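Pasting as-is:
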Amino acid sequence: MGKTVIALGGNALDDGKSSIDDQIRRAGETFSKLAGIINSNDSVITYGNGPQVGEIFEKTSYPLDICGAMSQGFLLHIISTAYQTMKDAGILHKEAVPILTHTVINKNNYTMKPIGPFYDHKIDSSYAMEMGKGYRKMVKSPEPVSILERDSIIELMSQRYIPIAVGGGGIPVEKLLNGYEEFEGVIDKDLSSALIGTLIGAEEFIIITDVKNIYLDFASKTGIINKIGYSEMKDYYNKIDFEEGTVKPKILAALKFLEGGGKKVYITSINNIETMDSGTVIEK
């Protein structure tokens, strides 16, 4: 039995048009496909919040850290309900514990990340085209450096519980001399997931996204990446202009996880999870 981080993409639950019941159903289907991995490993489940945090921001205009906290509670309810349903059905065997998570960030090192729904035109200058799907709002995405709830996550795993944590990368906070200060942005959940993987000593990191494989050129779907070593993937990362906020942070998260002691990273879709060796596999 090994330690595994399973990172669920925000779009895995919500395609931008999904009702709450739809999202619970989709989460349940996801857990059903992940049951073999969850039942046979000490796992922590993380999740994205891109569609949800953007929707909350558009409707409330609250600061992004507050929107992130609201989306965590909202998604923890959906994910925990779906998980418990699968456990009651005998498909999952372990208890899950939802954890509201804060992530300490380096505010001076950030990229830009898309959030919210897609539009067929620019709403304003803060919107950019994402992978040919439409325009989304771009916001600051700072580097994660620590997880405040790390010890709680480690303790839960030692007791064979499944923590559901690091939602949307965690609520971004900056450490001050006398406490913490909120940050107006969102953290990439894959980078935070890689970080928690390193902190707990995980061997495997599974990034579930909406495509079976990643490509050297995603726009043209050419240069499919299947099995690849760390050094070759790092060379590609340094030479190729992968898309910020989507593909690029997934590759960076994979590299950081392997640099931190991990052994293998899978990047694939939930529909391919039973044969995920045919997805993108990056090994140390």
